[in-house]
Structure formats: structure tokens, C-alpha cells
Design goal:
heterodimer, A: about 525 residues, 2 domains, 6-stranded mixed beta barrel, 13 strands, about 15% strand, B: alpha/beta, Rossmann fold, 6-stranded mixed sheet, about 20% strand, binds adenosine-5'-triphosphate, binds magnesium ion
Chain lengths: ~525, ~300
């Protein structure tokens, strides 16, 4: 009983000891914030990765792919059928994207992915990342009249509007055809109705400048190379494709600029499946833009209908009527069993032809880097708390020395060494509880209001603390794992108690007579 | 204050009678006896004496004690202090007998080893040689835990510098030994009763109006009275006092002496008091002198 009473009295009369615990408080708070933010980043990133990569992908090692996806799917079904929700055959090839910009052709390397036309089952969030609300419901590579999102869906309320998206779709397409017609009329020397010029946009050359490359681009002009059906209606869209938004947009002075909009035509060039591969190209109409906020994907992926890609690449066998694909994307019922499924499949198919990987394998280095960063930060921060432990140790030793006589008195009254030890251990524990508790509250509050704090700090310093144009996040993502918090608090408590063990032991071992004689 | 300490002579539980147990009697005599029994039997074990005794056979030591015989006995106590290679012999064979119910004064010059002797008797320190017997049990070589228990339940100590705990009020200081005896829950359960007892005891020593005062808010005399109350709260069989008046002016010191005297006579409390003040010592029943590390009757 006296332990608690004395511990409490010592706490109440020695506020200075709380000073030693402030570093524990700050350490705990920082650790909680750092972990929450890192976990938030990781989760956000994983979400995005998972939005585009399927749980497990079964791939051919060759660009030519493998024959008969139905057969393979049946085989996979036999091995891990219980685990699978759905399988999607796809073709992935490196390709070149070409589009016209200010009259000049612009070419970029891309990853071309052929997915089934309905694209319903491809990766969990594929459709969620499209810009047209209807496409998010159902997507069939069709161009919409208009109605593409004006707002960055990940950006939140304060994201700037994408004004140019207002005309995206068939409207933009018709405008462009009309504009081009007038341009050709002007070249032919006919007078131009001035009012019509306002339909232009900044991705197209200003009208009063004569484009010196106009003649050069002619043969490659996608509108020129039109099939019969399209010629009947010049505005009719070609085969649809979805571009990663990062391929055709850039940020400048905080504003987003689009080089290509849904409704524009682009040209894709990619190798055929034969040996040696030959380059083939075809023109596609952009029907939507893909925005996962994972820069890596947004600036490299282009989706086209699988059958079209197979046809263009020659990935079918006329005689047997079978097709070729380069991979089968597998969506599992339980994502966490990915590595088990992978191992089973890898064991069943010859590894020199097929490679099986989970989405985690594919993003391994990225995820590992984030994990590593978190681990190192945690270690450093925990060291801070450990350093605080030495502060506690020093202060406790002082208190024990100061209380030497009282310890002697207690012993003369018959207190056991263990009881005396208890005083100082519970003292350490209480300080730890106060410090870690306060740190926990502080950290959790900070995490909760981190975005308000960010804005407030930004206003205070006049500088953007967390620039969305750099991070592609408009809000700092956070995720609080209760177990992490619990471990941090327990760790801090353990350090506070550990730091009080030595002084407490010293107190317990004091010789009663020497303690009584102590002045 | 009752004086019926001999109500339980040589009973099956051994010599467990203590003065000032009056307040506790009504509610907890069984508890008090049980506690004392444990202390004695454990001490017995430590001393290597046969632990199990026939319940009816009278223990001759116990009979002696309750009959005003020897309560505390020191035989050939030796104690040196070592200062580096220097050996400072302080006690060189002290023989001392303290009888039940007497007020014994040990007088000696400063540095003669009075405190050292008292610490040995109180089991706060161990002698280099010699034996200490309490209630017929040898206590100098008992285990730390047993000696802690003995100090807590059967010995009371007061000091020249009072040695109150500065963070606690007078009342809490008096309760401190009980808080040590009882665990958290046991104390909580009995709190009301124990607090009443402490208040009554503070009343007895004349501090009824200082319950909530911290030591630094009290005078020397008041602190010593609080210390006496603390020493007596566990109803010890013996009170060891180390110069209880040494830090007080003559009149206050005399007040303390009178208090000790009245406790001795009214509650039959055995008191061993060391002092260098012969005027104080002369009020004792018996005075012995500590000279050259040995005790001689004066
Ligand atoms: N820890 C120690 N180390 C060395 N010598 C000690 C120690 N403690 C006490 N002494 C010595 O032992 C002797 C006896 O000390 P003690 O305190 O018992 O005397 P005392 O009779 O109580 O004196 P006082 O009347 O001043 O209280 C003194 O000479 C002292 O110097
Ligand atoms: Mg002394």
C-alpha cells in the first residue's frame, strides 16, 4: 500500500520528473504519426497497384505468347480452381504511341495491353480509374458523346477543374474535324468564317501561324487514313483505346495541360508475333483516360481491345481457330493467398515458358523500399525514446539519492527491499504511462488533423508543405494500425520501466543503517 | 490503555502479548495473534530451533518474558566498522538484558556506539559476533525477510531526528507501518478502522490537532510525538529509542520523557532508550553505561 501512496506523493511533488518523460511523449507521438503516414502511403499505393495489376498473373516468357488461352485456363482451373474468382486472358506488348501536337508528331514508348472488350473483370479497379461516369459502370471501348469528369476524382474539393474535359468525347471529335476542314479550306485559299475558330484548343497550333510541317504530316494524318465506313461518317470513332493520363498530360505552374483528349485519334506501333517481328501500326480513337495516380502506370499503359490486338499482331491460328495470348490475369477470391497460388501454378507449368507472379512480386522493390524506410524511421525514433530512457535513469538516480533517508526509514519500519523497489518501479511505470499516454493522444490527434495542420502550416509559412503536383496526392493519406500504436506504447512503457529498474534496485539494496545515517 | 498483557501467558501461540493492543482487540484479536505467531515460528525456524512444539508444553522463555523476565537479550555483541584498512572497533562484547515492562536507559558518550547497539538490537544491522534473543528466539541471524517482519510488527523505533517521511502527513506517517504490513486491498478493506486507530493514537500522544500537517509544518516536539505514535501503531512489544530528546530543548524533551514514562507505566511498554543526557537517563527504571564498547551497570 505504502508503495502506491509514496509513488503518488513523489510524482505529485516532483514535477521535474515529468520533464524527463517529455521526450518519451514526443518520441511516441512522432512514431505514431510516422507510422500512420507511411502506412497510409503504402496502403494508398497498394490500392493503386492492385487497381491495375491482377492478384496473380500467369505470363508467357515470350512476346509471341502461348497458344490457346482456353486450354490454359482449364488447366489452371484444375490446379487452383477453388481459389479463383475470375481469369482474364490478355496480351501485353511494348509499343510506340504517336499523336500530333502543334502539327508535329510526338512519339512515346508505352506498354500496350489488350484486354477483352467487356473488360468487366480485368483488375479490381480498372474501371474505377476511368474518367467517364458511365465507363465506371460499364466499359466497352466506346466513345461517349460528352460528360467526362471535370474534377480530378482523387483530388478532392480543392483540386483545380479540368476545363478542357468539358468538350471531351464526340463533341471534341466533331469540333476537331470541323476545325480541320476549315483549315484545309484556308489552305486552299477560301475565306474563313472567323467565329468558328474559337473551338480550337491549346494542343493545336494557332491558326494564323502557317504550319511548316503541314505537308510532312499529311501522309500520317490519322484522319486521312480512314476506312470506308469512317469515310461515310468522318466523325465515326475508330477502335477504342484507353490512355494513361500521364502519357498525354503534364503539369505546368500548377495547372494540368492535356495533349490528347477523349475523341482524338492516336497511332500505335508495335511488333507482330511472328519471327522476326515486324512493326505494324494502326489508328485508334481515345475513348477515355486512365488515372490511377500511380505515375508509373499512368504514364505507360495503354489499353486496347484484345481481339483487335490479336488480329493486328497475328496472334491466331487460322487452321485450328485458336488464339494466342501473352498472359492470363487471375483474380483470386482471397488476395492474401496469392503466393500459394503462384507456387502451385509455377510448379505445374514449365518455368522456362511461363512465369507466374503476384502483384506483390511485381511491385516488390517499391513496396520493399517503403517498408525499409518505415523500418529505419522506426528504429531511429525508437532510439530517441531509448535516449529518453537514459534521462529517466539519471533523474531516477537523483531521486533515489535524494530519498536515501526515507528509504532507510521505510526499512526501519519493516519495508522489504522488494517493496521499496516497487515504489520506484511504479514511479517509472506511472511516468511511462503518462508519457506514452500523452504521446499516444498527441500522435493520434496529429494524425487525425494532419491535413488541417498541413494547410495551416502552409498558410503560416506561405509555402506549400505537401505539394500535390509532386506527390499526386491532394491529401496526406494516413492509416492508423491499432497494433502498431499498441506496440509503440508498450515499447515506451518498457523503456520507462527498464530505466527505473537500476535506480529501484539500488534503492532496494541500500543498507538500512547507512541510509538512516545519510545526510 | 489496558494493562492486561499477561492475559495470554505461554498460550499455545507463544508470547505474543503487546501493550496498546486495546483498540485492536475488539475486532481483530485473532488476526493480531495469528500475525505474531507467524513471526515467532518463522524466527524459530531461522534460529534452527525445533519448530514444532507441543501446544500445551509451556515455553520457559515465554513464561519468563510474560512474568517480567527477559524480553530482549544481547550476548557478547561485537561490531567493527571498516574504513579502508582501518578497523574501528565500536562494540567489543556487549551483554545486555532487557526485562519485560522496564524502561532501560543506555548512557554513553557521543561516539561510544549507542546508535550502533540500538541498530543491532533493532535488527537493522548484523553483529560481527554475538547473539541477540528476542522473546526467546534468536533474531540476529534470521533472514532479511523475517527481520523486516519483526521490525514491522514487534519492534518500535524512534530516532533523534524523528525520521518522519516528509511527503506524508502526520496521520499518514503513523499509518505507514500498517501500510507496510497490509497489502493494497487488505489495507483498503480495513482502512477506516486503521485510520481510527491512528487518530486515537495521535490523540494519546497529544497530536490530535495536527493530523493533516506535514512534518515541516510541525515543531520538533510534535514530530517526535508523531514518531512515537508511528512506532506504537503496530502495538510492538518493545520500543527502541535513539536519543529521543537529543534534538529538543529541555522542556520539550521532558514532555517526551513524560510521554514515554506514561506509556511505560500505563501500557506496560518495554522501552530501551539510549542517551548521553544523564538527567534524562535518571528517569529510567534502570541505567546501564556503554563505555569502551562494553556495557556496565551504573
Ligand atoms: N559507517 C561507519 N563507518 C565507519 N565508522 C562508523 C560508521 N558508523 C559509525 N561509525 C563510528 O562508530 C562509532 C559509533 O557510532 P555511533 O553512531 O554508534 O555512536 P553514538 O554513540 O550513537 O554517537 P552519538 O551520541 O553521536 O549518536 C563512531 O566513532 C563512529 O565514527
Ligand atoms: Mg547516535
Amino acid at each position: 500500500m505504502y508503495k502506491f501512496l509514496l509513488c503518488w506523493r513523489y510524482l505529485r511533488t516532483r514535477w521535474i520528473a515529468l520533464a524527463s518523460i517529455i521526450s518519451v511523449t514526443l518520441g511516441v507521438a512522432t512514431m505514431i504519426v510516422v507510422n500512420a503516414v507511411m502506412a497510409g502511403f503504402t496502403q494508398e499505393m497498394q490500392d493503386r497497384i492492385r487497381g491495375i495489376l491482377s492478384d496473380v498473373s500467369f505470363e508467357a516468357r515470350s512476346f509471341n505468347g502461348f497458344r490457346d488461352p482456353e486450354y490454359h485456363m482449364r488447366e489452371i482451373e484444375k490446379i487452383v480452381g477453388d481459389e479463383i474468382e475470375v481469369m482474364t486472358p490478355t496480351v501485353t506488348v511494348p509499343a510506340m504511341l504517336s499523336f500530333q501536337l502543334h502539327g508535329e508528331w510526338n512519339t512515346r514508348p508505352v506498354q500496350l495491353i489488350g484486354i477483352p472488350r467487356d473488360a468487366m473483370q480485368y483488375a479490381s479497379k480498372f474501371r474505377q480509374y476511368l474518367q467517364h461516369p458511365k465507363h465506371r459502370e460499364q466499359f466497352r471501348f466506346e466513345l461517349q458523346e460528352t460528360g467526362y469528369d471535370l474534377r480530378d476524382r482523387h483530388g478532392g474539393e480543392d483540386a483545380p477543374l479540368r476545363v478542357r474535359m468539358e468538350t471531351a468525347g464526340m463533341v471534341h471529335r466533331r469540333n476537331m474535324i470541323e476545325y480541320r476542314r476549315q483549315w484545309e479550306q484556308q489552305l486552299a485559299g477560301k475565306p474563313l468564317p472567323h467565329a468558328e475558330q474559337t473551338v480550337n484548343d491549346d494542343s493545336q497550333p494557332a491558326n494564323d501561324v502557317v504550319d511548316p510541317f503541314a505537308a510532312v504530316e499529311r501522309p500520317l494524318d490519322p484522319f486521312a487514313a480512314r476506312n470506308d465506313a469512317a469515310q461515310a461518317d468522318p466523325a465515326a470513332p475508330l477502335t477504342g483505346c484507353v490512355l494513361g493520363i500521364g502519357l498525354v498530360s503534364y503539369r505546368h505552374n500548377g495547372a494540368e495541360h492535356f495533349l490528347v483528349l477523349p475523341g482524338d485519334d492516336i497511332q500505335l506501333t508495335f511488333p507482330t508475333a511472328g519471327t522476326p517481328p515486324k512493326a505494324v501500326s494502326d489508328t485508334f480513337t481515345v475513348v477515355d483516360l486512365y488515372e490511377s495516380k500511380m505515375t508509373e502506370y499512368d504514364s505507360s499503359f495503354i489499353f486496347v481491345p484484345l481481339d483487335k490486338l490479336q488480329e493486328l499482331r497475328g496472334m491466331f491460328d487460322r487452321e485450328s481457330g485458336t488464339t494466342f495470348v501473352t498472359s492470363i490475369q487471375i483474380k483470386l477470391k482471397d488476395e492474401s493467398r496469392g503466393s500459394i497460388v503462384r507456387d502451385k501454378l509455377q510448379a505445374a507449368f514449365p518455368p522456362h515458358f511461363y512465369s507466374v507472379s503476384t502483384w506483390r512480386d511485381k511491385q516488390g522493390p517499391l513496396l520493399a523500399a517503403v517498408e525499409m524506410e518505415t523500418a529505419i524511421l522506426n528504429m531511429l525514433l525508437f532510439l530517441i525514446i531509448a535516449v529518453a530512457g537514459f534521462g529517466i535513469l539519471a533523474i531516477f538516480f537523483m531521486i533515489v539519492v535524494e530519498k536515501t533517508k526515507d528509504i532507510g526509514i521505510l526499512k526501519s519500519l519493516g519495508a522489504h527491499g522488494s517493496g521499496i523497489m516497487g515504489i520506484f518501479l511504479s514511479y517509472g511505470l506511472s511516468l511511462g504511462l503518462v508519457g506514452a499516454g500523452a504521446g499516444m493522444v498527441l500522435g493520434l490527434l496529429f494524425v487525425r488533423h494532419i491535413n488541417e495542420i498541413r494547410i495551416w502550416l502552409g498558410n503560416l509559412t506561405g509555402q506549400m508543405v505537401f505539394d500535390p503536383s509532386i506527390y499526386y496526392f491532394y491529401e496526406i493519406p494516413t492509416s492508423v494500425n491499432p497494433w502498431t500504436v499498441a506496440w509503440i506504447v508498450i515499447g515506451a512503457l518498457a523503456i520507462a520501466v527498464a530505466a527505473s529498474v537500476m535506480p529501484a534496485l539500488r534503492a532496494a539494496r541500500l543498507h538500512p543503517v547507512e541510509a538512516l545515517r545519510y545526510e | 490503555m489496558n494493562k492486561h498483557h499477561s492475559a495470554n501467558p505461554a498460550g499455545p501461540h507463544g508470547p505474543t502479548v503487546a501493550p496498546l493492543r486495546a483498540q485492536a482487540r475488539d475486532g481483530a484479536s485473532a488476526h493480531g495473534q495469528a500475525a505474531a505467531t507467524t513471526a515467532v515460528t518463522t524466527a524459530t525456524t531461522a534460529a534452527g530451533v525445533q519448530r514444532v512444539r507441543p501446544a500445551t508444553a509451556p515455553d520457559h522463555e515465554a513464561v519468563a518474558a510474560s512474568a517480567g523476565g527477559v524480553l530482549l537479550k544481547a550476548v557478547g555483541l561485537k561490531k567493527d566498522y571498516h574504513k579502508g584498512k582501518h578497523v574501528v572497533p565500536v562494540l567489543r562484547g556487549v551483554d545486555l538484558e532487557v526485562r519485560q515492562g522496564e524502561l532501560l536507559a543506555v548512557i554513553g558518550q557521543s561516539g561510544s556506539g549507542k546508535s550502533t547497539l540500538l541498530h543491532l538490537l533493532a535488527t537493522l544491522d548484523r553483529p560481527d559476533e554475538g547473539e541477540i534473543w528476542f522473546n526467546g528466539q534468536r533474531i540476529d541471524n534470521a533472514s532479511t525477510r523475517q527481520r523486516d517482519r519483526l521490525r514491522n510488527r514487534h519492534l518500535g523505533m524512534i530516532f533523534q531526528f524523528y525520521h518522519l517521511l516528509p511527503e506524508l502527513t502526520a496521520l499518514e506517517n503513523v499509518l505507514a507501518p500498517l501500510m507496510i504490513t497490509h497489502g493494497f486491498f487488505s489495507y483498503r478493506l480495513q482502512r477506516r478502522r486503521l485510520v481510527e486507530r491512528a487518530k486515537a493514537l495521535l490523540e494519546t500522544v497529544g497530536l490530535g490537532h495536527r493530523l493533516k500537517h506535514r512534518p515541516r509544518e510541525m515543531s520538533g516536539g510534535e514530530m517526535q510525538r508523531a514518531a512515537i505514535a508511528r512506532a506504537l501503531i503496530t502495538e510492538p512489544q518493545i520500543l527502541l529509542a535513539d536519543e529521543p530528546t537529543g534534538n529538543l530543548d529541555g522542556r520539550t524533551g521532558q514532555g517526551i520523557m513524560e510521554l514515554l514514562r506514561s506509556l511505560n507505566t500505563q501500557s506496560n511498554l518495554t522501552i530501551v532508550m539510549v542517551t548521553h543526557d544523564s538527567a534524562i537517563a535518571s528517569q529510567a527504571d534502570r541505567v546501564v553505561q556503554l563505555v569502551d564498547g562494553q556495557v556496565s551497570d551504573s
